């Protein structure tokens, strides 16, 4: 029963520590920052490169600020990937997604309230391009989710300790790359919560399911691909590595001595 409670995350509710609630506040704040500043950037200019940089920097800043509290998911696709990989409990994943959506809604709502309607310019809402079908949009968002979650797992791989110092930047740059490659066709959501925020503010829900199914399926596929195939192997400890090197060196010296005796 204890293992079952742990898998569901019921033990986290019983804990007297505030770590879960701090994590939820972190996820809320991270998505608020992303939608407020990145969607705010979308109100100013139509240039895709400008928007790509805004969303990449928004994710970079959000993870840098709240990553130590919640792991810096800031995206239901990432949370689903972590759930499938067994890195978070079911209960924590559900709460994360709720607070991510609430943060995104609050961030976009703040932009809408603070700006005159003449400046809204769609508030950065993601929609399918005119000649892009829902199935095509699903495929594009799938690969966007795949890219993002593969980057998250690669940057946060415990067996690649050097990666953790550049993880927020790497993840932010994957968002920028995704926008540069596809923003014209789907708006390059990559993040269901981000699209919930703008859909709520604009009351436009057309093809909304695409922006949930695509990134989440991509995130789940990325989690399985990385954990089963791409995950780095554990590195030997410094002492073990040194001992292994000394053993090989000793064996080489013995082979040399044996060779010298043969020639004598």
From TrEMBL:
Which SUPFAM superfamilies has this protein been placed in? Aquaporin-like
Where found, per UniProt? Answer: Cell membrane
Q: Name one GO cellular component term.
A: plasma membrane
What superkingdom heads the lineage?
Answer: Eukaryota
Keyword Transport (UniProt) = yes
Family statement:
Belongs to the MIP/aquaporin (TC 1.A.8) family.
The entry's protein name is GK21417
Q: Which organism is it from?
A: Drosophila willistoni
Q: What gene name does this entry carry?
A: Dwil\GK21417
């Amino acid at each position: 029963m204890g293992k079952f409670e742990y898998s569901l995350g019921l033990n986290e509710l019983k804990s007297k520590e505030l770590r879960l609630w701090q994590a939820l506040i972190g996820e809320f704040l991270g998505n608020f920052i992303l939608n407020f500043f990145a969607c705010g950037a979308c109100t100013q200019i139509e240039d895709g490169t400008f928007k790509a940089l805004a969303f990449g920097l928004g994710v970079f800043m959000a993870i840098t600020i709240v990553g130590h509290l919640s792991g810096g998911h800031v995206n239901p696709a990432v949370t689903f990937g972590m759930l499938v990989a067994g890195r978070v409990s079911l209960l924590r994943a559900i709460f994360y997604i709720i607070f991510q959506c609430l943060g995104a809604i609050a961030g976009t709502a703040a932009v809408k309230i603070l700006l005159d309607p003449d400046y809204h310019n769609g508030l950065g809402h993601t929609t399918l391009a005119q000649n892009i079908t829902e199935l095509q949009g699903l495929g594009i968002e799938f690969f966007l989710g795949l890219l993002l979650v593969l980057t998250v797992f690669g940057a946060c791989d415990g067996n690649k300790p050097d990666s953790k110092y550049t993880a927020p930047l790497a993840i932010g740059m994957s968002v920028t790359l995704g926008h540069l490659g596809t923003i014209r066709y789907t708006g390059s959501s990559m993040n269901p919560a981000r699209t919930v925020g703008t859909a709520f503010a604009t009351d436009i829900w057309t093809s909304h399911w695409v922006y949930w199914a695509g990134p989440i399926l991509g995130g789940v596929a990325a989690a399985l691909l990385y954990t089963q195939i791409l995950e780095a192997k554990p590195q030997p400890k410094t002492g073990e590595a040194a001992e292994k090197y000394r053993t090989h060196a000793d064996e080489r010296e013995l082979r040399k001595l044996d060779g010298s005796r043969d020639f004598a």
